[in-house]
Fold this protein.
Amino acid sequence: MSNICRSPYCEYVFRRIVEEDSELASRVEWVKSSAVFNKSRTINKKAKLALLREGFDEKYILNHKPSFKWGKGRKSFDEADVIIGMTKSNAYFLPLKYRKKFVLLSEIATGKYIPIPDPVLIKDIDEYYSAMDEIKKYLSDYAEKLRSRLSRD
């Protein structure tokens, strides 16, 4: 929605998962987060802390500039094979043209819908990290399913 919390975390963590796996790296062209709702300017401070906790370099993290795709800048949506959201409500803010590409992270990772709450309102950093760890687990599960599917192709 805003590309300041869950989305950049997913982008960075999933990109690293892909880069560390030669089979995925040879088939996945790019991983990019983008917003359709909010024109935020910087990554959320707790998301930055979560990424530092994952071992990402602070300068690399701060290079993230929330991408906003409402209106003219929809090229990455056009080029995307899949658009991944966290909750069903995310689809309502996505232009109709792109909804056929929309999937939910929990569904593609586990086969069932489990809403992934926005941790931006979580005040306790340990609870925040726990929420981000859940997202990381979904990303790992999705990577495994993707790897399996790609190896059959």
User: Anything to note?
Assistant: The chain has a mean pLDDT of 85. The two ends are 33 Å apart (CA to CA). The CA atoms of residues 88 and 147 lie 25 Å apart. Helices lie at 6-19, 22-27, 45-53, 58-62, 75-79, 89-92, 105-110, 125-152.
